[in-house]
User: Fold this.
Amino acid sequence: MKRETHTIDASGIALGKLAAQIAVLLRGKNKPGFVKHVDEGDFVVVKNFGKVLVTGKKLEQETDYHYTGHMGGLKETVMGELMQTKPDLVLRRAVYRMLPDNKLRDRMIKRLTVKL
Assistant:
């Protein structure tokens, strides 16, 4: 199994379409010998993520939740704030939720690199 490196320029691409394209490459669905229980995906490097398009009112309305593990520890952050502080986390979570919910998902997401 040989893993390739794909470089994607994110400027001008909608966030969801970019995440779907990355999920296909990380999973290896673009290869002719795709088998769902084998991790044969490639490495993905995303450039210019600061110029990605976020359509509609998602920057004001989308909220991201984080639970600290303590009582009353549910933290919520608006996507606009998250894009200011940790923009790579927005893409990483969007791609993470598009990958299959099994043991291979954590290995797949480690092959994603986001450059601002």
Observations:
- The mean pLDDT is 96.
- The helical segments are 15-27, 58-61, 79-85, 87-98, 105-109.
